[in-house]
Write the structure tokens for this entry.
Amino acid sequence: MNPRTRLWLVATGGAGLAALLVAACLRLPDFGGDRHPYGDRAVRASLERHVANTVASVNFDQRAFDTLGELTILFAAVLGCMVLLRQTRDEHRAPPEPADVALPVRRYALLVLPVALLTGLYVVAHGQLSPGGGFQGGVVAATALHLLYLGADYRALERVRPIGPYEAGDALATSAYLVTGVAGLIGGSAFLANTLLPYGMFNTLASGGTVPLLNAAVGMEVACAVVVLLAGFLDQAVEIVEEGEDGERDDDGHDHEEPGK
Amino acid sequence: MTAVLHVLPYLVAAWVFLAGAYGLATSRNLIHAVGCLSVCQAATYVLLLAVGYRDGATAPVFSDMAPGTRPVVDPVVQALALTDVVVGATVTALLLALVVQVAKRHGTVDPDELTELRG
């Protein structure tokens, strides 16, 4: 199909879709309206179970089963990326070169790294109390580790994050979520039902029954998944080279054998 | 005027979606196409949060506010938007991994030049 025909096709289809979307928008309830029946019920259920952050209650209690599906998507995507970004037969690993980092960048990155890591863990831990939770905090914690790549170099990053344990952590966290769900089943109610643990005192770290547990499992899974994903992409960019591309990377000219394979 | 304001956020969502779809259809670079898909997905965040908004309301978090003192926005759609963000990020990662492989095997990231299937 030539570009002109394609543009006409897109314009026709797009105009039709735009008309339908506008017609649909005009029939939606008014923006900012006061009628939110599901929202009101979710808030009530959340307060009954002593969870201060209603969004966490929706994610890890009322819709905990959907979050399991979401975790599975994340897990499958990480698995897919690992398969797609693996080292193929016609590639080998060149050890990354040490890189010079400007002193202010290095200082700033090393200063901020512990603060960012702690912030990530804080956001995970307070998931059921304040805005945030496992998903957000996990990403912050995983990103914090990568400040080491900016502040030092790739070899330093590889030393603090061997991929194996993070892959295992990803799988373990998913299993922990499942086990918590099964515990609810064995405990006499339903899969992932929040009836097992006492709800605790409102607005404390231990409140909310199984919500903090599921939240922590999600935080661990997301942090591990982000580390593993970024490692896959960074390996492709920094370490993995095709055969016959040595000259660009190594000045000393000797071949690097694939380590330990 | 208020009638327009009552639907404006929904129309913004529709516009963002169509802009992303146009980018996808006319893209000459697979990385750009993945970005366009993210734009399409961003439209769903706007739509979800617009659906859940309530005039004069605050976040549905009761750690520093007694329940019932202020109206809160709909937490269900906020949780859905969170799900949306996570799924969007994983899909983007998977697609970018595919693009890396396409670039390596075919030496191009222009979808128009990827006409034949090769092993």
Observations:
- Strands of chain A lie at 91-93, 240-242.
- The first strand of chain A starts at residue 91 and ends at 93.
- DSSP finds eleven helices and two strands in chain A.
